[in-house]
Amino acid sequence: MIDHEVRTYKSSEKLAREDQLAHKIASVAADPVPVDPQVSEMVINRVIDNAAVAAASVRRKAPTHAREQALPHALTPGSTVFGEALSTTISPEWAAFANGVAVRELDFHDTFLAKEYSHPGDNIPPMIAVAQHLGVGGADLINGIATGYEIQIDLAKGISLHEHKIDHVAHLGPSVAAGLGAMLHLPVDVTYQAIGQALHVTTATRQSRKGEISSWKAHAPAFAGKMAIEAVDRAMRGEGSPSPIYEGEDGVIAWILSGPDARYTVPLPGSGEAKRAILDSYTKEHSAEYQAQALIDLARRMGAQIADKSTIKKITIHTSHHTHNVIGTGAEDPQKMDPKASRETLDHSIMYIFAVAMEDEGWHHERSYAPERAGRPETVELWHKIETREDPEWTRRYHSTDPDEMAFGGRVEIEFEDGSTLVDELAVADAHPLGARPFARENYVEKFRTLSEGIVSEAEQNRFLDLAQNLEQLGADDIRQLSFVVEGLGHSGSKGIF
């Protein structure tokens, strides 16, 4: 990997195009280096993972409305939509949008955490949509997805967005544009222009993940993927973008991030170096914010040791700055303690999550968020006994670049009414690559079958899994079948413009 320093330049300094971060990213996308077999296998795992969480959410309100917005945009050959008949094809940017909302709705797919947060599986819906429309084969699709993961993860390693209250999808727009450039074998200068456009139109505030969190949380990455497809389309036609987009005097660093005097270091693969960043990412066993994954596993373990949870006086979760301030009491969001809060808010409340996981000694993507579950009096009582505190050591480990030190969990102290205590800690989730039960192919397949049970027929499950697990060998016709059909899928009947 090569570390690239990125800073603001005055217009009079005339920063050369090849020295701009967007151009360096485009050069990585254009590098014809083969995809490692281990990376190809992980891409397949994540395609299955995305489909699993999309199947579980396909009948929910936000994915249904996204489909209803998308379906009027019919196009041949076009792209498929999760749940719809394979013969129903629409414009790829709208398919990416509809499928992206379905993937993100339950906050249940993969994650990478560093200076910035990311769900790099958000790269997959726009890649598949464009591949289906343009007749791209499996090997090129894998390369595009691997490139999207590489760029989003490398940007997350080097540039913090949340520090300035900018949503993390500002890294997703450029990564999708780069991945599409790789998949379509576009010239460096075309991908460069697309990256600049994609970043320019996908930079937004973090309010979508603050306070009363709405379903826009699921729409935001899908919208970024849609915008990136449109940016690539414009760039392929010869249209340009604001530049230098990162380094310009009125660019992203100068006015949206840390200002004209800031320096960022972004690692990118060198020429001929394989794109392996997907292997640094990790998926979720539980449907909740990633920082909750280890704490859910810890809550299950500790809950099993407490026969009468009404004897608990107080629970203190010592954890990282991010966990404390984003999903903990450090956020100072009263909605996180409200039994009538939205599902999107509850999955960003570690106090609620820890209480339910302790009581149930488990976690379910639907039952654990049901209004009647959130309103249970004993749960509300326990929930309000929980607080989080930032621990500098957990913050240090959260930001560590050493995989053996990196940690996203915490230490929990439970104080009982009689004065006794129970203390335990867990650094990484059981499903993490360094956890007690790291996810492997069979776990991804099991997750797909579990989440699609009662929604997708067994025959349709089998058909999709057969295609996905042979992704590298698939031709264009097979890629166009890379979706799943839900029999009797209904619509809400809502009315909008489309």
From TrEMBL:
Ranges where the MmgE/PrpD N-terminal domain occurs: 20-263
Protein name (Swiss-Prot/TrEMBL): 2-methylcitrate dehydratase
Record SUPFAM superfamilies: 2-methylcitrate dehydratase PrpD
Gene3D superfamilies: 2-methylcitrate dehydratase PrpD (3.30.1330.120)
InterPro entries linked: MmgE/PrpD_sf, MmgE/PrpD_sf_1, MmgE/PrpD_sf_2, MmgE_PrpD, MmgE_PrpD_C, MmgE_PrpD_N
Gene Ontology MF annotations: 2-methylcitrate dehydratase activity
Subunit and partners: Monomer.
Organism: Brevibacterium rongguiense
Keyword Lyase in record: yes
Keyword Lyase: yes
